[in-house]
Design goal:
The complex is a heterodimer.
Chain A lengths: L5 E3 L2 E3 L3 E3 L8 H4 L10 E6 L12 E4 L2 E4 L8 H12 L6 E5 L4 H11 L5 E7 L16 H14 L4 E4 L7 H10 L4 E4 L3 E3 L16 E4 L4 H14 L4 E4 L5 H10 L3 E4 L2 H4 L3 H16 L24
Parallel strand pairs in A: 3-14, 4-7, 7-8, 8-9, 9-10, 10-13, 13-14
Antiparallel strand pairs in A: 1-2, 5-6, 6-12, 11-12
Chain B lengths: L2 E14 L2 E7 L12 E5 L10 E4 L2 E3 L4 E7 L3 H7 L6 E8 L13 E7 L4 H12 L3 E8 L8 H5 L3 E6 L6 E2 L2 H7 L6 E5 L2 H11 L3 E5 L15 E3 L9 E3 L6 E3 L6
Parallel strand pairs in B: 8-9, 8-12, 9-10, 10-11, 12-13
Antiparallel strand pairs in B: 1-2, 1-7, 2-6, 3-4, 3-7, 5-6, 13-16, 14-15
The chains are: A alpha/beta, B alpha/beta.
Chain lengths: ~325, ~260
């Protein structure tokens, strides 16, 4: 077994590195830079039942060591994703994690049922944490009972394991995670973006047409690490960590905090080769730290009484 | 093919108020296909500023493996870029996007090149390539004021060049469209790059002509993955069809997308 291989519900990852949803489209753009089969998995752009155009521009604004985005879940809709995007991706030897979004429960259930039938979709990522749409999205991700109810309904119809993407924009992330675990989720992905705003001094107006946007990038990494550290010790399901990852060191920090795999988001925009570069660098970093297998890193920061971790599908 | 390369700074100089001319050298130059393509620059290896900066290409010298950019220093990223000195390197991703179609005008015909402010630079490489092809070029270049004017002499060597300034401190007072009308400039093909209000004015005036415009929009990835720089298509102005400025553009035929 390769020292980077990780086994998670539904996912046999040859390495624990995957592009995060919304930062990689449906893969085509990055396929011109490298072989997508190198990746551990791909989290594709959020898919909704119907096509969405998304928000007016400007949709992005830069911040100190981060960026705000308010794309608004632009996507071609379930039918086109099933017809075009997923079959195109099937030429690569890489499991797909389909990000599922909607504005009402029925939408989520419908998309989850249909997209989970696609042969290369090995897991779902339930998007209850998008801060940039007026209805749905984060509305499902801020009240534990509501999130749990949706998780149950999606679990009932999904043919593959369901991971739920947590929003950091909540009062108590541990309560949220526990409610979702009890509802039957197979794993968690965290964190989605933090809600933020930038104001242009010349116009006196918010830079983003949507006014607010989701903050991502290195600026949010400490928030994600703290939340994963807390949640991973309170639940028994695995966590795919994300937020500002741009190096092999960042990946191990996430593992030490309690993540079992890591997604790379904003860094793809800065360096299109960042995912394969991190995958290349991980073995040497493990050598330097005297670690045989990357799974030994999971929860290493928890302390003496930490539980042992052994997830399998 | 899109490359990522640490390119070497050959020269950098200020050519107008807050306007810099930067020449870089590297193999990526050989990949540039058309005038109007752009590059995406990472000006520092640190995380602030984090994102790349899209900048247009003003001059290509394949023999010397060099290209030149002209940009305005107006934020942290371009300010850091303006401090780069010869021998230092810049992380360049490119060439990106689709440029101006040279075959939209034939030898012996007339092309009108209309630029506004920091939209002027890509027209310089375009003009040179059109002249090489035997096309007659006319330039109408708009700037805020005298202090912002650059490359007038270089453009004048290629063809008639009219300058307009918003405040009237140099050339004609007013907008580029006023100049075109005042001098009754006629053309077979019009190429334009500049602020969106200028492009809108050109679109409403010359919608029935052979016109190509280069758009500017805030970008994330620059390669079509992040959906930051999306615009509606004119055929479906409120629907779901779209074009990405970075990878479908930045040059579009007038009337193709909603400005």
């Amino acid at each position: 077994m390769s020292r980077l291989e990780i086994q998670l519900p539904g996912l046999h990852l040859k390495n624990p590195i995957m592009p995060a949803s919304g930062c990689f489209g449906f893969g085509k753009e990055y396929a011109q830079f490298y072989d997508l089969s190198l990746l551990g998995a791909i989290m594709i752009k959020a898919t909704t039942a119907e096509p969405r155009f998304g928000n007016p521009t400007p949709r992005v604004a830069e911040t100190t060591s981060g960026m705000l985005n308010a794309i608004g879940l632009q996507n071609p809709g379930l039918e086109k994703v099933l017809e075009n995007e997923l079959p195109w991706l099937s030429q690569y030897d890489v499991p797909i994690i389909a990000n599922v979004a909607g504005s009402q429960v029925e939408d989520y259930v419908h998309v989850a049922r249909e997209i989970s039938k696609a042969p290369n979709v090995h897991a779902l990522e339930l998007n209850i944490s998008c801060p940039n749409v007026k209805t749905g999205g984060i509305a499902f991700g801020t009240i534990p009972e509501v999130a749990a109810e949706l998780t149950k309904k999606v679990k009932d119809v999904s043919e593959v394991p369901v991971y739920v993407k947590l929003s950091p924009n909540v009062a108590n992330i541990v309560d949220m995670a526990k409610a979702i675990e009890q509802a039957g989720a197979d794993g968690l992905t965290m964190i989605n973006t933090l809600i933020g705003m930038r104001i242009d001094l010349k116009t006196g107006r918010p830079v983003l047409a949507n006014r607010t946007g989701g903050l991502s990038g290195p600026a949010i990494k400490p928030v994600a690490i703290r939340m994963i550290y807390e949640v991973s010790q309170a639940v028994s399901i695995p966590i795919i960590g994300m937020g500002g990852v741009q190096s092999a060191e960042d990946v191990l920090e996430y593992f030490f905090a309690g993540a079992s795999a890591v997604a790379v988001g904003t860094a793809n925009f800065v360096d299109p080769f960042v995912c394969p570069t991190i995958i290349d660098e991980l073995p040497q970093l493990l050598d330097e730290l005297g670690i045989d297998h990357i799974s030994e890193c999971i929860g290493r920061s928890w302390g003496k009484n930490a539980k042992t971790v052994n997830y399998s599908s | 093919m899109i490359k990522k390369e640490l390119m070497r700074v050959i020269s950098q100089q200020s050519i107008a108020e807050n306007i810099f001319e930067l020449t870089l050298q590297g193999d990526l130059v050989q990949e540039i296909k058309e005038p109007g393509q752009f590059v995406h620059l990472k000006v520092t290896s640190s995380t602030d500023p984090l994102l790349r900066r899209p900048i247009s290409i003003a001059n290509i010298d394949k023999r010397e493996n060099q290209f030149t950019m002209i940009y305005r220093s107006e934020g942290l990223g371009t300010r850091v870029l303006s401090e780069k000195r010869p021998g230092e390197t810049v992380d360049v991703l490119g060439p990106l996007g689709n440029g101006f179609p040279l075959d939209a005008v034939s030898e012996g015909q007339t092309a009108l090149l209309v630029g506004g402010g920091i939209g002027v630079p890509p027209l310089y490489e375009l003009s040179q390539q059109l002249v090489d092809k035997g096309v007659k070029v006319i330039h109408v270049l708009g700037f805020q004021s005298l202090s912002a004017v650059f490359y007038q002499e270089k453009f004048s060597l290629l063809g008639d060049t009219y300058i307009a300034t918003v405040d009237g401190s140099y050339g004609e007072k007013g907008f580029v469209t006023d100049v075109i009308k005042k001098y009754g400039l006629s053309f077979d093909t019009l190429y334009s790059c500049g602020p969106t209000p200028m492009l809108r004015a050109i679109e409403s005036e010359y919608a029935d002509k052979n016109v190509y415009i280069s758009l500017e929009e805030r970008m994330g990835c620059g390669v079509g993955a992040c959906f930051a720089c999306v615009c509606h298509t004119a055929a479906d102005p409120t629907g779901f069809s779209y074009k990405k400025v970075c990878s479908d553009g930045p040059v579009f035929k007038v009337g193709e997308v909603v400005l």
